[in-house]
Amino acid sequence: MVKINKTSVLLSDKTKTCSNSCALKHDYGISSCHIQKLEDYIKIIVDGKNKITYNNSEYTLQDVRLYKGSWYTFANKNKPKYSLVLHHTGDGKLTLVIPIKVASLVGSVFGTSMNKKSQLFFNQFASQITNSNEKKVVNVANWSLDSIIPTNTPFWTFNTSKEPSISHTTIVFDVDYPMAISNSDVNYLKKVELKEQKPKKHSSEFTIEYNKLGFEGFVNQEGFTSMREGMEGNDNFECIPVEIDGEPVDETTGIAYGDKDMEKGIPWHKILDNPFIIIIIATLILMAVYFVVIPGIITLIAGDEHYTMYEIWQIS
Fold first, then answer.
1. Contacting residues for 6 by C-beta, under 8 A, at least 6 apart
2. Which domain holds residue 281?
3. Residue 197 belongs to domain with CATH number
4. What is the pLDDT of residues 240-260, one digit of tens each?
5. Global pTM?
């Protein structure tokens, strides 16, 4: 079993920048999904390409875990609801830690398309999680870890190895720019009763560096740099439309309709979905009919005489 380093580290200093390029390219690829609830985390089993390159060193994904909370301490007492941990081996070890927050806290309607993709990632398996520790096959479509890796997102990086010649690199993405999980999927996870991970005594033995730019996204052999574009050349899957908290996702782009509208301007269809807006519009229409249209019709019938609604009410 893979052992995850849970050393508590204070992640608040953003002044010491990466001494290396801190360049990462990932191509996990389309995958099936198996899940298993273990003692304090959800184990997620994937079978895609699972390749990743960091600072020109290649790694292969070995383990994916979803924890509740985090053993890291962030500035301003900010903390994620969940942490997705991806452990790789190759030229040493490489662990990615991705903070996850509830969509309502990061913009479920007006959020970025990347956060919509991360919600879709969780949405396809969260309802299947139970307290049983049996391994479970989940029916997923267009499902890839590439959709959950933050793009252009700052991160901290440090080496947890006690031997300088050995690289056990940990990358923790900035919790101020979390990936999102929908409210409905959080409700499924609450039923599982995962043990919450909390920071302990901080270790000061690591040299912690910060990358303000983040990664540009994954690059596959065709040179694509976004998840959905990378999938367009793949004939081995069908695109199936889904919904996230009742909000449809465009099957051709993978972007929620709300995000597409934001690219064009104000999302008018969402504004008109608001019942309070509809009430206000209906009230304005009724007032226009009552004070303008009806007096105008009566004035036309009466000839040169002009009547106000008050005068019409007195006559009646």
1. 71, 197
2. 274-315
3. 3.10.200.10
4. 334 444 444 444 444 444 444
5. 0.68
